[in-house]
Amino acid sequence: MHDLTEEERELAAMVREFADTVVAPQAYEADRTHTLPMDVVRQMGELGLFGLPFPEEYGGQGGDYMALGLAIEALGRVDQSIAITLEAGVSLGAMPVFRFGTEEQKRELLPDLLAGRALAGFGLTEPEAGSDAGATRTTARLDGDEWVIDGSKQFITNSGTPITRFVTVTAVTGQSEGRKEISTIIVPNGTPGFTVEPPYDKVGWNASDTHPLTFDGARVPAGNLLGERGSGFRNFLSILDEGRIAIAALSTGAAEGCLEAAVEYAKSRTIFGSALSTRQNAQFTLARMRARVHTARLAWHHAARLRDAGEAFAEQAAIAKLVAGEAAMDNARDATQIFGGNGFMNEFPVTRHYRDSKILEIGEGTTEVQLLVIARALGLAR
Fold this sequence. Notes:
4-stranded mixed β-sheet
């Protein structure tokens, strides 16, 4: 991490210590019980992690996306569920309000979000609208001074926690030049007609809060529109570009966590009279794992620096997510192999990484979507 400033190094070290002393000890039990540890979320808020890339005037830390990525990477190294809680709380919960909200919406909603006293969800994905987000079927129509929302969303992170304040949903609000007009609307939790359905039974990220949502005539004030009417699809594409940097940082942390655990285990595991780490096949596996971590970190650092400098970064974000997501999955597989039979036991963190890491190649844009973004940047696709 030689490209980091002294302040950035201090932040990374601080969150790494928090991850090792507070997050890691509870990770197995939280995963086993499928429970988001709200005390850990509270402590992350007290450390200012939810406010890292936001201005101080709204209660933020005055940092940038590089700072956020460093925190997420440090957390992802020991517990992906906690890391994605922070990532989604910032990138998908607070950032849309900061980017597109009115001054009144920012003043009302951001202070609690940036302090970790509240969380918000991002309702984009639907049963028939995943990678093709333009296929949105949820509708919102104006009835007097209220939006009436009907439809459903799925796989929505941070949507049903004890401190979830609202979800921001994309909905079809009309037609424009023969195409769907998609807008975004803030729906407070507890709104009549808005139901947070029971949580999913997932393969991984078990301590992360994830629910399907149902809207049946849910009514919210017309002033809950977030951003300009009809700009929802375009706005959230830009939010996803930023989110891919954060997911790449999380993936890098996961890949590093697998490497660290595998190196330690290989040094301590005796096989045929000598440490596993003395055998060349194990050494080569660990060396490849190290190379993946290094490459993934370089990729997301580059994308974050471009974003923070105000330069175009969509292609670099896609590259970072592609490379880092694959690094996490490959390192989880290799670490599990190094652990042998123990790698199949849930008490070991590499097993949790093995289950958790697959979603890193799917969430916030599948691997195929990243390849399409890169291909378009090469002038190969429309």
